[in-house]
Amino acid sequence: MAGDPETQYFTFELKLSPRSKPTSATFPAKLAYWTFGDSSNPAILMPTCYGGTLQSTLPFLYNDAASNQTSTPPIFPPSKYFIIVCGLLGGSESSSPSNTPDPHHGPAFPHTSYEDNIRLQHALCTQHLRLTRLHAYIGFSMGGQQAYHLAALFPDFAEHVVVLAGSARTSWHNWCFLEGPRNALVESADFHAGAYTEKPRRGVRAFGRAYSAWALSPEWFRQHSWEKLGYKSLEEYLQNYWDTMGGGDANDLLCLVRTWQQGDISVYHEEDQGDLAKALGRIKAKVLLMPSRTDAYFPPEDNEEEVKHLKNGQVKVIESIWGHVAGGGGGTLDDNEFIKKQIAQFLV
Question: From start to end of the chain, where are the E strands?
C-alpha cells in the first residue's frame, strides 16, 4: 500500500453527553480520520488509543508496509475492505485542548466522554460516509473501550466487535493507576492549572515516569527488553520513550485520562442501575476479547468475567511479557501474528 493518505476532517455540532462537562452543551467537534479502499466493501472502523495517532493505530491489520510489526500479509487489505481510522477527542488530531481555538482552548476544552466520541464517529459513518453498518469495529486500549461503547450505544451498527486489551468498565484499580501520572502532571510547578504558555516539560516528564512501569510486565524488565527496542540502558529508554510522552500536549493528556477514567457502559440504561452484567447482556454484536496475559491496566480476569454475560462472546488471551502494549502491535511479531490469526478466524 502507498504512503499515508491525507487526513480528512468531519465537523459536527455535537451535543455533549450527560457525563461530560459542560453537561449536554453543544460543541463544534472536528473528527480527524483516514479511509482506505472502496466504501462498497465491508467496513472496518479502528479508533485511536491513549497517545495513539491515525498512523500508529493497528497498521499491521491492514497495511502491508507495516513490515516491522508483522511477517504475513494484512488481514484487511484495502482492496477487499473499507478501512476507517478515527482520532479520539483530546488525542491531538481530532478536536483537542491543544488545537481548538477560544473559547474552548486549553483548560477550557470540554471534559469529553466515550459517548461523545462514539456519537461523533457514528455521525461520520452514517451521515457523511453513508454507511448503514460496520462489518467490524476493532480497538486497542481506549480503542477497545470505545468498541464496547459502540456496541452498547448502537447495538445494531456493528456486526463484530474486537476489544484488544480493553474493558467494558474502567476498574477502580485502573482508575487509581491513572491518578498517579495525572497528579504528577497537575501538581507540577510548570503546569499552571493548564494555562501554561510554554510546554510544562517537568510535568510531562513526571507524568511519563509515573506511567512507564505500568505499560509493561515485571518479566519485560527482568529480561532487559528495552534492549530489543535498541536502547542500551533502562534510563536511555525512559528518556527517549517516556519523558516527552511522544510530544503530547499536557492538556490533551489530561483530557484523555478523564475519558478513560469514567469508562463504563452500564450508564446508558438508567433502569439497569449500574449493573454491568445487564449492560453486557444487551450487546447484540459478536464480541472477541483479546487481553494480554501480563496487562496491568486491563487484566484477563476482567474480560473473563465480562464474557459470562455476553450473548455471543469469546476470550483469546495474548500470551506475552509485553504487558498492555502487546495488544496494540507493540509486542513481538508472534504477538501480532496471534492477534491477526484470532481476528481472522473470528470474522469467518
Answer: 8-15, 26-36, 43-47, 82-86, 134-140, 158-164, 286-290, 313-315
Which one of the listed residues 17, 141, 167, 217 is annotated catalytic? 141
Q: pLDDT at position 91, please?
A: 97
CA distance 344 to 160: 11
Confidence of residue 65 (pLDDT cuts 50, 70, 90): confident
DSSP SS3 for 335: helix
pLDDT at 2: 60
**Number of residues assigned to the chain:** 348
Q: What angle do CA 307, 50, 73 make, to 5 degrees?
A: 70
Task: State yes or no: is 64 an active-site residue.
Answer: no
Query: Starting at the edge strand that comes first in sequence, how are the strands of the sheet with 8-15 ordered?
Result: 8-15, 26-36, 82-86, 43-47, 134-140, 158-164, 286-290, 313-315
Instruction: Out of 149, 160, 324, 335, pick the active-site residue.
Output: 324
Contact of 250 with 196, CB cutoff 8 Å: yes
Is 295 labeled as catalytic in the residue annotation? yes
Question: How far is CA 60 from its chain centroid?
Answer: 16
Mean pLDDT of 239-253: 94
| CB within 8 Å of 258: residues ≥ 6 apart | 111, 112
CA 203, CA 208: separation in Å to the nearest integer?
9
- Written as nine digits, the cell of 237 is 529508554
Q: 309 with 281: CB under 8 angstroms? A: yes
Catalytic residue (choose from 116, 249, 252, 295): 295
- Percent above pLDDT 90 for the chain: 95
| Buried b or exposed e, range 234-244, using 16+ CB within 10 angstroms | eeebbeebbbe
Is 225 annotated as catalytic? no
* pLDDT for the residue 152: 98
